[in-house]
Amino acid sequence: MEYSHQYFALFALVALLLWSLDFWKVFKKPVLILPPTDRKMDVLLFSRLIVFVAGVASFIFIGYAMMGPRKPLKFLPSDIEVNDIFLVVDVSRSMLADDLKPNRLEVAKQKLKEFSALRPTDRIGIVIFSEKVFTLLPLTTDPNLVNEIISEIKIGFLGSGTNIGDALALAVARGQASPTKNKVVVLLTDGVNNVGNMTPLNAAKTAKEFGIKVYTIGLGTKKSRLPIGKDPFGRQQYQNIPGGSIDIETLEKISSMTGGKSFMADSENSLEKILEEIQKLEKTKIAAKKQVVYEELYLYYLLTGAILFLFTEIFRRVFLREAF
Predict the structure, then answer these.
(1) pLDDT above 70 as % of the chain
(2) Contacts of 75 by beta carbon, 8 Å cutoff, 6+ apart
(3) Listing from the earlier edge strand, what are the strands of the sheet with 182-189?
(4) Would you call 126 helix, strand, or coil by DSSP?
(5) Quick check: 189 pLDDT over 70?
(6) I want to staple 40 with a disulfide (CB 3.0 to 4.6 A). Which of 36, 67, 155, 159 is the partner?
(7) What is the C-alpha to C-alpha distance for residues 294 and 180, in angstroms, rounded to an integer?
(8) Cβ–Cβ under 8 Å, residues 153 and 128
(9) What is the average pLDDT score of the chain?
């Protein structure tokens, strides 16, 4: 319960005081009258007491109504500034490497879900890439949809290869069309650009021109292996992936050119800390105001008080035969 004019109750309190002085004839000159019998006197005093209590109650209701009681029903957010964040995720086959358990991709998906959950006011978009690039999710403010789409990220339908340049360029193209002021790309990969029409640095140059910051994350360890199927006896076989497969230098240049930051994640814990740092760096600074829809309750109390007061005054004049 809230009150829009809580100090207005003082007016009702003053009115109650004046009415009480009049009711009990405090300032009226004494008049000599013939007293009624004891029984009639008791009935008269009891009746006046009931009327007085009703009168006090009427002023209480009216005073409460004057305070403007109201109950908030719902909150309508006003216009707020949001960030546009594109998650650009590598889905090349090497993301199945098991140096992060159960594999790199599953760890990345879980941590990206946690990251997105911390940005409820921001618009999130998802671009995935391997040899080809694909917008898996346009910008949206629906956290449940973001969570669902991240869960659906899979490997295999975008060919082989690592097309970092075109993936970054696609995210930049979608971002530059948005009217939002602050735009960010989080690029997560475990490889080196080896296919595509645009180089990663040219894509970064375009991102810089449109004021889009790029945070890059290299994911993986120096020693890793890739599941390649099972042998005739049903045992899982692996292919060793050579260390140093991440193009750290290019990732650092991309971030430096665009005003972002570059990171290396070699464990689930380190990836979580990196995303937490990005979350803090890109925390939305807004003075969010909310419009509140209220149910106004004053009318009920005002009508109740008015009816009680009318009853009081009629009873005084008709049954107690008091003069105005």
Answers:
(1) 85
(2) 290, 291, 292, 293
(3) 133-140, 123-129, 83-90, 182-189, 212-219, 262-265
(4) strand
(5) yes
(6) 36
(7) 31
(8) yes
(9) 86
